[in-house]
Design brief:
This protein has nine helices and eight strands. By secondary structure, the protein is an alpha/beta fold. It has a single domain, classed as Alpha/Beta hydrolase fold, catalytic domain (Rossmann fold). An eight-stranded mixed β-sheet has the order 1-2-4-3-5-6-7-8, sandwiched between helices. A hairpin with a 2-residue loop joins strand 1 and strand 2.
Length: about 325
Amino acid sequence: MKRRTKKVLLTLAGIIAAIVIIGGIACLIDGRSPQAIVISHLFDQATMDSYNQQRGDTTDQSTVEIPQDVTFPREMRQYRVGGMQVFHMEPQDDSKPVVLYIHGGAYYHNFNELHWKAMAEWAKRTGCGIVAPNYPLLYCYTARDAHPLMMQLFQQLVKQYSAGRIIVMGDSAGGGFTLALAQEARNDTVDQPKRLVLISPWVDVLGGDDALQGYDTFLNAEVLRKVGADWAGEMAPRDPMISPLYGDMQGLPPTDLFTGTWEIFYTDIVKTFDKMKAAGVDARLHVAEKMGHVYPLWPCPEGKKARTEISSIIQQ
């Protein structure tokens, strides 16, 4: 029995060593961590069939719960703004900022566990407050329903904390929403937030670089253009409220944009950055080579590095 056990253990050790060596070689050749390589192939890319199925889905998403395995450092209370569910955790003290986080999900999917874990991590590392609205989603609502509620929430936060303590942050669709909200606030002469943080923002709902589709294992440009038109509803898809790439960038707050070179939004995000710089906005572009959509939320070294950078931005 001892010999057999020893043989099994040696075999397992050999397999583990081989995996480590192969992973190291893959990392050296590819330039990404083994975790990032694996994660990039775990996503289920949307298809036209799945799109046609989801269009008929009117499931009520107006109420969600925080996953049980995610803990925040302070009490997360809930309330409603015009029927919209809002999660709200106070900052550690009056010197800390408040992050208004607008989640992604193609304006159809709700919060996922990566959103909650990232918000909890930033709250623990920086002492910031967190406000996470569960805004109206397709296919019960469109942008015309969601934007007034988000502006109402933002104005409430400005009154409570002052705009100088508020950082508005969002990923993917939420990143596009973040930029559109800032443009809308400026147009309505509402005080601007202290800073914007845009993670792989969807800034043109009819955009996406087809030349990068072969590298993007997550997003499907054809499907997203249809979903984007659905989100626009009766509005023009290139209305800045829907596609903020086409909006006026002047007067916007300092902005950090995060993108991977292997996501179809990469080209549109670079255009947004260039347009911001041309308008005099204090913008910074953070580019991760060969990384995919919303990589800062991924549980891999590259994602951890980006989340650390975002923690520093919050602390600034």
